[in-house]
Amino acid sequence: MFKKFDPKVFALGYVALETADIGRTKNHYLETIGMTETAKGDDGSVFLSIGYQHHEIVLRPARQKALLHIGFHLKPDIEIADFAEQVRKFGLPATIKTDSQPGVAKLVEVEGPAGNVFQFYNAIEAPASGFKRTGAAPLRLGHVAVISRECDKLMRFYQDFLGFWYTDDIEGIATFLTCNRDHHVVNLVNAPESRVHHIAFELRESAQHPVAADALRAAGVQVLWGPSRHTAGHNLAGYHYDPDKLMIELYTDMDTFVPELGMHEARPWHEHFPMKPRTWKVNELSSWGAEFSFNLAAG
Ligand SMILES: [Fe+2]
Predict the structure, then answer these.
(1) Residue 256 Cα to ligand 1 middle (Å)
(2) Do both 75 and 162 map to the same domain?
(3) Phi, psi at residue 194, to the nearest 5°?
(4) What spacing in Å lies between the alpha carbon of 252 and ligand 1's midpoint?
(5) Which of 160, 168, 150, 141 is nearest to 71 (CA)?
(6) 242: in domain
(7) Tens-place pLDDT, residues 158-201
(8) Residue at 177 is within a domain
(9) Ligand 1 centre from 141 Cα, in Å?
(10) pTM (2 decimals)?
(11) What is the whole-number distance in angstroms between the Cα of residue 236 and the centre of ligand 1?
(12) Are residues 187 and 104 in the same domain?
C-alpha cells in the first residue's frame, strides 16, 4: 500500500544518552520515572531497565548532554551480518560489535544520516529486574522524537531502508513513522538543530497520569504540557524535563496503526473516519483544544 516490503525492525529497544551530571540524571530515571539499574559499564555508563528487558535507557557521563545512539530490535529472520551488508550497500558505514555493552552480545552499529548512530540487534537479555511500584512506573519505552537539520536524509533511511510506515505529520515539521502497530515509534522533527526532542514512556493505564504527575511534583519537577489528548496519534500525553532538560513524555491510549489497511483503528474520539495518515496543523496539538503556555512544538 505504502511500500513493497515490511520493516526490518519491530521495536525500539533503547536510547543511550550522555549526561553532564550522571548522579542527578540517574536518580530521576530510578526514583521519579521508576526504573532499575541493571549494569554499569567500564566507562561509567549505567544501564536502566523498566522491568523486564536489560535496558531501555543508557546514561553515560560526559561534559554535556547528547544523544549517543538508538537501539532497534531486528526481525528474527534478519541476520546481523546480512543486515550490515545491506546497510553498506545503502551507502552507510556499519560495524559489527561483540560484547560492546552489557545485555547485548552482538549488534551492528550504523553511522546514520546527520550524525545519528543506530544499533541493531537480534537479542537483548531479559533479567526481569521487576517493575517498580513507585514513580511513574511505565510499561515500556514507546518512541523517540529526534530533531535533525538533515531530516530528509534521516527519513529516507527510516522509510526507504528500514521500511518504516508514514503514519501522520504536523505541517511537514514533525513526521511520525512506525515499524509496528504503535502510531509512531519515531518522530522526526525538521529544524536547524540536531538533538533529541523527547523520549516517550507508555504508562500502564490512563489513571496513572495523575499518579505520575504527583510523583513529578513530589520530586519538584514541573509538568510542562498536558496531560491532554494529542491529535496526531491521539495519545493522552504529559511532558516534563529530566534534569538535563531533555523532554520526557508519559503517555497512554495511542492510536493503533493497521498497515494492511493503511489506517489507524477507529476510535470514538477520532475526528475523521477512516483515520488515515494525514497532515495536522501545528496549532492543533491538543485534540481537546486545551491551551498550554509551554511551546511543545519548539520543545
Ligand atoms: Fe511523543
Answers:
(1) 14
(2) no
(3) -135, 105
(4) 11
(5) 141
(6) yes
(7) 999 999 999 999 999 999 999 999 999 999 999 999 999 999 99
(8) yes
(9) 11
(10) 0.97
(11) 10
(12) no
